[in-house]
Amino acid sequence: MPHVPFHPSALKRQRQNRKRQARNKARKSRVRHAVAAALEAIGKGDAQAAEQAVRAATRELHKGASKG
Question: In 3D, which of 23, 50, 52, 48 has the Cα closest to residue 39?
Answer without folding.
Answer: 50
